Every structure is written in structure tokens, then in C-alpha cells.
Amino acid sequence: MPNILIENGSIVTVNTGNEVIASGYIFIENDKIAALGAGPPPSTLRRQADTLIDATLMAVMPGMVNAHTHLFQIFLRGLADDKPLLEWLKSAIWPVACALTEEDAYVAGLVGFLENIRSGATAVVDHQYVHTDLRNSDGICRAAQETGIRLLLARGWADYNYHPTFMESQAVIIAEMRRLLDIWQGAANGRIRVEFGPLIPWGCSDQTMRETYRLAQEWGLGTHIHVAETQAEVDMVMQSHGLRHIEWLDHLGALGPTTHLVHSVWLSEREIDLIAAKKAIVVHCPVSNMYLASGIAPITKLKEKGVTIALASDGPGSNNSQNMMETLKMTACLQKVGNLDAMALYPEDVLGMACRGGAATFGQPELIGSLEVGKKADVVLVDLDSPFSMPVHKIPSTLVYSASAGQVDTVIIDGRVVMRNKQITVMDEKAVLAQARTVCAGLLERAQAMKYSLDQVKW
Ligand SMILES: [Zn+2]
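Above: query sequence and zinc ion SMILES. Below: predicted holo C-alpha cells.
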């Protein structure tokens, strides 16, 4: 791989001290950051560099981690606006998802990963629970392999009380995890990894939750689950189990540092304490929570208790984008208005969640999430020479409140330039978009032909 030298950039390290270098350089050797410093680069590095990137008037930041999405929903965005979660699922997500093929998942993955790259994300957790074809998950992994992005595939499952098309037996869930681990764990120079993704407390049986969590611990994998997104869902588990969502996980022994709690909007004080005590990670999806009118997650309270928080877009069906630059601003603004406190979150807090918090969700805090020597070269250059962000007084503030995804100029993942001067370099982006139009039309046609009936759903 060619060595890369980035010079003259404002380096926003997002390290634990939130250090910003007004003008500095980064030297990338293979897939790692080999040197980083203030001022002009040493002449030896300049001589060694195969590729020279001038980052004048640009912020150089770590690639963000979009810590929760469902990319199969790419073809569903805009189909079911203005509905609460359970109605949104029934009227749009399930009917179309029933007709999904591996090819659909693959092309949706390509579009979704390109959108993530264009908005500054270099790593994505895809919670993939539509197994109409067991190879759908492979389609998503192939798309990650080809776009060059870092992927943690949370292999979703439900085995109880859910839509019949999406339920599986415990034997199938475990056999499929073994198959995916064999093929994909550590693939593409370690960029692609797999973990368990139980869908939601009201769709997962106690037995399978216990068993998959036990296996996750044994195999060194994370467990990624939606919790307490809406009040109605909390009531459902209260009725069936007499427990709130986090209490249920704790009761099963499935709450720990490798548990990722997506949403965590409707939490009791006791649950917040449980999350902090067990060191579980909260994945916050502010735009999706606003879009579906789910509520405001108690992020500032969780932060005060020392809980690690990551940020995410959620699926394109409930956002309706994958825009992590927008997510930064929404995270800060939602907590400010929710707490009626203008100091609820600072830009540095939000960048830390998007980068270091996401790296923790990925289970790789030592490899990604900040610009530091020895870490993976997942680097994003944001063009600040734009009317959207002029003038720049304080770079973290500019990145969170002013800059937009259109200003992301160059993206490097695992030492490879996947976007340069706003052009995707790894594939013909226009051809992918054309393919997506055709595939989407076919998917919607098949979904209609299946004449899906809502009567199939008991609850
Ligand atoms: Zn989700």
C-alpha cells in the first residue's frame, strides 16, 4: 500500500484530552498512523511519502463510527414518514422486508456504505435481521468488502412473538452465527467482523437470549440489541415478564461491558444505575428518536454516571439518511432542548461519542476512534473553506454545528483512500446508483405481489 502524508491540516485528534493541533501532519504507513505532529512534516517523511495530501483549510479528524443502522432499509426511506414505531414497522418495513433478496441487501449495502463514507463515517455497525435469504448478511459483508468500509455485522435474530417471516429457531440462529464467523470474522485485513444482534426484548425468548449471550462471551463477541425505544415497548415486556428492558437483560445475566444498548430512551433511574454498574454501552440515535417521536434519551444523566455513549443514524427507514455530520448537531441540540440547558453537551463531548464511543462499541478502542500513532489509519478530511463554516473560530464547534456532509473531502480507511476531492475512488458511484434504482423497483414490485397480510401478526 502506498505511504500517505497529510500536511498543513488542522488535526482534531479526538484523543482523551481532545487535543487539537492548529496546523500539523499525519504520516500513514500501510494501514496505520506511523507519525503525527505539529508544524510542517520532517523532510524524511516527505521523501518517504508516495501520496501527498495538502490539507490546507481542512480539519483532519478520525473517521466516525455509525454505531447502529439497518442498511437493507435503504430502499425504504421515505416510504412511511409520519408514523410511530410499531405502525411504521407494520405498514412499511415488514411488508417490503419480506421480499428482500441477497442482491437487494448487497446493493442497499453499497449505497448505504457510500452514504456513510460521504458523511465522514469509516466504520458501521449493521444490525441485519432480515433473513428472508440467509445470504442477505453475506450481501452486506460483500458490500463492505468492496466499498472498503469497516463493518461490524450484528447478526439480528428474533424467536418469539415477532413477525413470522423474521423468526428463527435457536438452532438456526447459532448455526448461522458459526457460518458467518467462519467466512467473515477478520476478513478484509480485519475490517469485517460479526457479533450477535438480538432484535428487541419483546421478540427474544429468555432461553435463546441466555444461550447466545453465553456463546458471545465464550467466542469473544459483542451483543447488540434495541432497548426501550418507545414507552409502548417497555409496557409490552412489563406485561409479559413483569420487568423493564434493562432489568430483563440483567435478570438473564446478559448485561455487561460487551452489551450495546441501542436507543435506551425510556429508562428508569434504577436502569440507568444498572447500565453504569455493569459498564454496558449506550448507542444513541437522536434523529431516529425524533423522526419516530420516540422520546429523548437521558444522555446527560448516563454521561454523568460514566456510561460510554456511541452515536448512530439508525436505519435509513427511520431517519431518513445515514448522515453522521447531521447526527453530531442533533445530538447536542436534542440534549440542550431536552434539559433546557445550553451547556448540556459540548462539541468535544459529541465528537468523543461519535469516535471514541463508537470505537468502544466496535470492541476496538485501541485501534480506532482517535488520531494517535499506532492506531488504524481511518482518517477524514473536512473542507472548511466553505460558506457553510466561514469563519472558523473553534474547529470542534465548526464540525458539530456548522459543517455539513457535503464538506467531507477525503476519506481514508485502513490506510486506503476511498474518497478523494469528494470523488469515490473505489467504484463507479453513478453506476451503483443506477443499479440501485433498478433493484429498488424490483423489490417493491415483489413486495406488492406477495400481498402481505397484517393478520399474520398476533400482538
Ligand atoms: Zn434500529
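Residues 64-361 form a domain with the TIM Barrel fold (CATH 3.20.20.140).
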